Amino acid sequence: MAVEPVIIKGTRDGIMIIMDGNTDFEIIKNAIYEKLQNGNGFFDGGMARVKVKNGSLSHEDYLNLEQILKEFNMSLQRQASPRTIIFPGQCRNRILLLKKTVRSGQKISYKGTVVILGDVNPGSEIVATGDILVMGVLRGMAHAGAHGDMSAIVAAFRLQPTQLRIAGIISRPPEDKQEVPQFPEIARLKDKAIIIEPYYQLNFESIKRKREGIK
């Protein structure tokens, strides 16, 4: 059954716009416009709140949505949502924590390590000078160690990237379909090639020693 990209309904607190975070925002915008237009003025002058299932709205998305609502004499109630958290530090120790699904067309770039509590959809990009950790399915492009850190890693609950980069080394998935492992995996460099290992087999002590320059 196909997922409806947008649901607009009235509540005691006003109008609620419920969006599917896995749907491209252009499709969502068109669906909202069509539903409001078909409302024949029913929503005129209303205050709308937004709920995104499996994702969140960027600042640009909010601005686009506000513009659409203005055409129908509606306003958008902004809601503070701490979905992006930055842990300050030096270089690798700096961490960007994102509680969202990264949709197609979105690019996340950060000087440090990026941790995503959600999925990374095809057509999206994650670039980090440190590690990339995805607590979900990684289907987009991931580039760890973007400034040349060859000890950087990429890890995900399901590692299915369209392209994988660590430092200056690039890897792509095989063209023939293969069975997707149902366990977390970690990609790292070994002998100037990207290898992928199950999480439970990885020797973290060896990675730590390599980063510290200990043989």
Q: Could you give a quick summary of the protein structure above?
A:
By secondary structure, the chain is α/β, with parallel strands linked by helices. The chain is built from 3 helices and 16 strands. The strands form 3 sheets. Strands 5-6-8-10-12-15-16 form a 7-stranded mixed β-sheet, with no helix packed on it.
Structural features, described:
With 215 residues, this protein is α/β, with parallel strands linked by helices. It folds into two domains: 6-77, Transcription Regulator spoIIAA, CATH 3.30.750; 84-212, Pectate Lyase C-like (3 Solenoid). It has helices at 25-38, 59-71, 204-211, and strands at 6-11, 14-20, 47-53, 75-76, 84-87, 95-98, 107-110, 113-116, 125-128, 132-138, 141-144, 154-159, 163-166, 169-171, 185-190, 193-198. The strands form three sheets. It has a seven-stranded mixed β-sheet with strand order 5-6-8-10-12-15-16, with no helix packed on it. The chain has a five-stranded mixed β-sheet with strand order 7-9-11-13-14, with no helix packed on it. The chain has a four-stranded mixed β-sheet with strand order 1-2-3-4, covered by helices on one side. Strand 15 and strand 16 form a beta hairpin. Helix 1 (25-38) runs parallel beside helix 2 (59-71). The longest helix has 14 residues, at 25-38. The radius of gyration is 21 Å and the shape is elongated. The mean pLDDT is 81.
